[in-house]
Design goal:
The structure is a single chain. The protein is an alpha/beta fold. It has a single domain, classed as TIM Barrel. Helices cover 29% and strands 21% of the residues. The strands form four sheets. It has a six-stranded mixed beta sheet with strand order 3-2-7-15-16-17. The radius of gyration is 21 Å and the shape is globular. The termini are close together.
């Protein structure tokens, strides 16, 4: 049995000084001043910390199989644990992509063997993410695919997306859409805006994202499919999603920390760590996304953790791959730059990372309650850190937030009652 004492526990949208007792991976008691008994094997003094449900990230690239020089299941899930995440969803654009029963079974085997946190595998929407032939939705759903996505490519043909939505509705799963019209990206590597004009190059248009959002909203209206938009980055996408929600359509969306904190004005064109897809947009887009968090149009925060090797990311901005890492920096960055600066409340931030994704994807987690599995994150809100990529557990060191000072650090992460990360220094074996 584990007893956590003296922590400030976030439950039912409020904080309370309360103790938590854990037995057989479940929370069995939540009361003030639970007495230490002979059955207790671990006592955790959580003084000066808050206890939240374990964070959930619905958009992570673990790279394995196929690109283990960028990340492995082991290194990626350790990074997740350090960041306070107890559940993550792994995108299927690995090598090979997860588009068949055999490949899904293989990734599940690797996850059982190596994962430190819970990992929910996605299936692709189409074979090899080529946008032509649908995967077998029935088999993939039955065997544990959390949802369907062609992340990294997007479904270009409207007719294919329409059929995919019909299939997803039949198996009661979401379509998770990477919205990018390839004809409108201009083979660009930054946003089409002020910086692209200064450099006299064609950029990635905002239309490349929001036109597909608009297309898919119409298809959702026809099919009744449950639909989630990945990593929105433009104010127009947000406006269209808000319109669809007001019509009662089953639509949700996510935003990344980097699109909330950075815009094209921040880009160092000599540093490919600022290169991601979708790209950093204009300041008006960033401000619209923050407003979308405030008014509830945006449902969740997801990192789009996309590790690459140092060799790849030290290439020129044109040559380097898209993507940055985010698991280990998400909460401190969001707490420091959104909560402490008054844009959103701490309660709101926790909900965006826990109960909201759990409800959206019908997950049995995201809450601290008696009877629930003990997925818990302990955070020292006063602890400060300087972001140093060289110290990341992730193989990917590619972040534009190097040496940003931040506050609010996860100090212990517990998955199903097992401590998978701990720098609290207050765990005592009692017998």
């Amino acid at each position: 049995m584990i007893l956590i004492k003296n922590g400030l526990v976030y439950s039912n949208n409020s904080f309370e000084q309360i103790d938590i007792q854990i037995e057989n991976n479940k929370i069995t008691k939540m009361e003030k001043n639970i007495k230490l008994c002979s059955d207790c094997t671990i006592l955790i003094d959580a003084s000066n910390t808050i206890l939240t449900p374990g964070f959930i990230d619905m958009h992570v690239h673990l790279r394995e199989p196929g690109n283990t020089h960028k990340e492995t299941i082991c290194s990626g899930t350790l990074a997740a644990a350090i960041g306070g995440f107890t559940t993550i969803a792994a995108m299927p654009n690995t090598k090979p992509v997860i588009d068949s029963l055999k490949k899904l079974e293989n990734i599940k085997h690797l996850l059982r063997r190596d994962a430190l946190v819970k990992v929910l595998p996605y299936s692709t929407i189409t074979k090899n993410e080529e946008g032509r032939k649908l995967v077998n939705f029935n088999i993939m759903a039955e065997e544990g695919a959390i949802a369907f996505t062609d992340d990294g490519e997007g479904v270009q043909q409207e007719s294919i997306m329409y059929e995919a939505m019909l299939q997803a509705k039949k198996v009661n799963k979401k379509i998770v859409a990477h919205c990018e019209d390839k004809l409108l990206t201009n083979n660009g590597y930054i946003h089409e805006g002020k910086l692209s004009k200064q450099l006299a190059i064609k950029g990635i248009t905002s239309e490349s994202e929001y036109i597909q959002v608009e297309r898919d909203i119409k298809l959702v209206e026809k099919t009744g499919c449950s639909y989630h938009v990945c990593h929105i980055s433009t104010k127009e996408s947000l406006e269209k999603i808000e319109y669809a929600k007001n019509k009662g359509l089953k639509i949700s969306c996510e935003v990344t920390p980097h699109h909330l904190l950075l815009c094209e004005d921040d880009i160092d064109i000599n540093d490919a760590n600022y290169k991601m897809n979708p790209p950093l947009r204009g300041i008006e887009d960033k401000l619209a996304l923050i407003k979308g968090l405030q008014d509830g149009t945006i449902d969740i925060i997801a990192t789009d953790h996309a590790p690459h090797s140092e060799e790849e990311k030290t290439k020129s901005f044109i040559e380097a791959p898209f993507g940055i890492v985010g698991l280990e920096t998400c909460f401190p960055l969001m707490y420091t730059n959104l909560v402490l600066k008054g844009f959103i409340t701490l309660n709101k931030l926790i909900d965006l990372l826990t109960i909201n994704p759990a409800r959206l994807f019908n997950l049995d987690c995201g809450e601290i309650k008696v009877g629930k599995t003990a997925d818990i994150t302990l955070i020292d809100l006063n602890k400060k850190m300087v972001i140093k990529p060289s110290e990341f557990a992730s193989k990917g060191k590619n972040t534009p937030f190097s040496y940003w000072e931040s506050q609010g650090v996860p100090v212990m992460t517990m998955v199903e009652g097992k401590i998978v990360y701990n720098i609290l220094g207050e765990k005592h074996e009692t017998n």
